[in-house]
Amino acid sequence: MPPSWQRWCRGLRDVVFPPLCVHCRGLVEDPEEDGAGFRHLCRRCEGQVAWVKPPHCTTCGHPFFGTVEGERVCVKCEGLAPEFCSGRTATLFKGPVRSLVIELKYHRGLHVLEDVAEIFRRSPHVIEAVRGARLVPVPLHPRKARDRSYNQAELIAGRLAEAAGGDTSVAKLLRRVVDTETQTAFDRAERRRNLKNAFALDPAAPLTRGQLHVLVDDVFTTGSTLNSCAGVLRDAGVENLDVVTLAHG
Q: Backbone phi, then psi, for 101, in 5-degree steps?
């Protein structure tokens, strides 16, 4: 569909179904005519997005505040022993971004992927880290994928690839072979035990060993899930491996 028709259809949709902010439930007024900008966050809530910019932890991407000297690894990563090289994140998992992620993961809110793409477009330090890479989404177990009908990490990776452009691509290289308990209430040690042998390489996965691979997930919490996935890719021979998340919580 030509861009002019896309704008016309979007405008008609907004008239018939005025977009509501997923965070405060207020009306999103005056969205950008060219389709840029947030469509599911109002201006007030947009101003509450906690953006991450350098300097940040080289392992998990969490921002540093003030002057940074010496080692650029934060206390959140102590004891992680990362299997990947470096990590970056676009925002902190709070306020409006938390509402966006919850809408996507638990309320089938596929419409907020427009705002996910906008977050990445406004995060140049993330874009530069993934341009030309193969983006590997963290997989869901087949049962959970059936229940949800999609994998949010895969959809987020797709929006990130579009924002980065060029030959950035999404490659589903991993499978989740153990239906683990939810990680929400676990500390790092418990998460690590819960995820033992939970992931495996897809037998049909075409590996390009010299290319940069970037694991993609919605939120970096303790890093246990990403690290478990990274270990599988390392064992398969992937050497150049980073991680990126939409948010850090």
A: -65, -45
User: Which of 240, 214, 95, 100 lies closest to 160 in space, CA to CA?
Assistant: 214
Instruction: Look at the block and give the residue holding tokens 């998992």.
Output: 93
Question: What pLDDT, in 10s, does the model give residues 39-82?
Answer: 999 999 999 999 999 999 999 999 998 665 656 778 888 889 99
**pLDDT reported for residue 8:** 44
Q: Is the pTM of this model over 0.85?
A: yes
Q: What is the bridge-based pairing of β-strands 134-137 and 87-92?
A: unpaired
Residue 70 Ramachandran class (φ > 0 left, ψ -120 to 50 alpha, else beta): left
